[in-house]
Amino acid sequence: MLVNQQKKRDLCWLISTNRVFLLPNIALMLIKRIQEQNLSAELAAAKSKVLVLYGARQVGKTTLIHETLRGFPGKVLEINADNIPFLDSLSSRNLDQLNGLVHGYDLLFVDEAQRIPDIGINLKILHDQIPELKIIATGSSSLDLANRVKEPLTGRTWTFHLFPVSAEEWALHHGANDHEVSQKLPEWLVYGLYPEVLGIENRQKKERYLQELTQSYLYKDILALANIRYPEKLRQILKMLAWQAGNLISINELANTLQINRDAVNNYIDLLEKAFVIFRLSGFSRNLRKEMVKMDKIYFYDLGVRNALIENYQPPATRQDIGQLWENFLMVERLKTSAYHFHHANRYFWRTQTGAELDYVEEYGGRLHGYEFKWGAKIARAPGTWTETYKEATYKCINTDNFMDFVCLR
After folding, report:
1. Residue 22 above 60 pLDDT?
2. Alpha-carbon distance 24 to 29, whole Å?
3. Which residue has the higher pLDDT, 230 or 188?
4. How far apart are alpha carbons 225 and 168 in whole angstroms?
5. Per-residue pLDDT tens for 122-143?
6. Is 287 left (phi over 0), alpha (psi -120 to 50) or beta?
7. What's the burial of 90, exposed, middle or buried (CB within 10 Å: 0-12/13-18/19+)?
8. Over residues 30-34, mean pLDDT
9. Higher pLDDT residue, 82 or 396?
10. How many CB atoms lie within 10 A of CB 274?
């Protein structure tokens, strides 16, 4: 029987204790994700919680769960939110219906759970009334899923995030040393690290994929769930943020340019954050008179998406925005590896009214750790104001020679 490629992505027939997963035949499926080990460890726990996996569309959430479940010894029921026959039971709030749905299965996997009404309440019923049933739910947007599971499932969940492939994951997969990883930087800074992009050799096809992603697929959850009156404004603000990635963002300036009010701008930015398109960084301050904290910086979870929005795929050597690309790359790679290795820290940038600045500051273990990012092999000394004001803080300049220590938490 012939099955088209899209159906192959979604198809999973579960027969007795045997499971057959039909996966797309592209390179992204071969890269082992670090979160697989974390999810497997939780599934092996005697009393597991509901596992919730968040991540943008196309980052490989479903594939990650499939790979994790290959070693699961029990019988699995997988439900995609597009599969209407199962939705009535899974949104019923009725224990008998829910029990009839999962009876005989050891694990329930709900894909794109944010589309199912009352999903949080129903997962709570299943977790409380059938404690031996293990549950995994994924969502490509925290826009709706977080609201639906947060209160009903308080104290009953472990939350995980999946991002585009990390530099650490790529290095582990290829057994690459730091020098070999650095040779990939020009490609990653332009096309990003979305799994499917890594499986495409042709540059024109990489660009085509990113254009398709940014023009429609990326906004699907936002437009469907947020009831946005003017979707074109969303695209305009996203393009403006792409141009200013890594810079201080003025909400007033964005509002005036788009001719909308401040609240609307903040709402759009909040929606884009919840759909895992962008994230923000706030300013650090212990002395409000001289340190700037009123404006945030915005970064993109993937540079391929950012470059597609501004339609610039020129190589780093010819670009005026190489500093922005490098800063964004280091920020998101640190974010990925911190999430995967449970490195909990408060994150900021630091800037004073007199012009002293650090690209990144982490606060953990009762200490401050400052970082400056430089493209190439450049070395920068710590600002005098930083060392004088925060005498116990550490400082390090991150460049292309030592960046793997930074992004791999060595």
Report:
1. no
2. 8
3. 188
4. 34
5. 898 999 999 999 999 998 766 4
6. beta
7. buried
8. 90
9. 396
10. 21
Q: Does domain 5-161 have CATH number 3.40.50.300?
A: yes
Tell me the mean pLDDT in the region 380-396: 94
Q: What is the pLDDT of residue 177?
A: 96
The reported pLDDT for the residue numbered 12 is 30
For residue 291, the one-letter residue type is: E
Residue 351 phi, psi (nearest 5): -155, 140
How distant, in Å, are the alpha carbons of 22, 141, 219, 233 from that of 229?
39, 19, 14, 9
Give the whole-angstrom CA distance, residue 168 versus residue 61: 18
Who wins on pLDDT, 147 or 197? Answer: 197
Evaluate if residue 387 carries a pLDDT over 80.
yes
Q: What pLDDT shows up at residue 251?
A: 92
Instruction: Break the chain into its structural domains and give their ranges.
Output: 5-161, 167-407
For residues 124 and 325, the model is more confident at 325
Whether the full predicted model's pTM is greater than 0.85, yes or no, is: yes
Cα separation, 212 vs 241, whole angstroms: 19
Q: Tokens for 299?
A: 């970064």
- Total count of residues recorded for the chain: 410
DSSP-derived pairing of the beta strands 248-249 and 296-300: antiparallel
Cα of 175 vs its chain's centroid, Å: 24
Residue 203 corresponds to which tokens in the numbers above? Answer: 């540059």
Q: Shortest CA distance to 207 belongs to which of 315, 322, 317, 304?
A: 304
Tell which phi-psi region holds residue 366, choosing left (phi > 0), alpha (psi between -120 and 50) or beta.
Answer: left
Q: Which of 312, 303, 327 is nearest to 375 (CA)?
A: 327
Residue given tokens 């929005």 in the structure block: 309
Nearest Cα neighbor of 305 from 178, 163, 209 is 209
Cα–Cα distance, 253 to 264 (Å, whole number): 13
- Would you say 336 and 361 are in contact if contact means Cβ atoms under 8 Å apart? no
123/156 Cα distance (integer angstroms): 10
Instruction: For CA atoms 176, 179, 181, 187, give the dihedral sign.
Output: negative
Which residues, in sequence order, are CB contacts of 104 under 8 Å at separation 6+?
Answer: 75
Residue found under tokens 């998101």:
332
Give the pLDDT mean for 51-78: 93
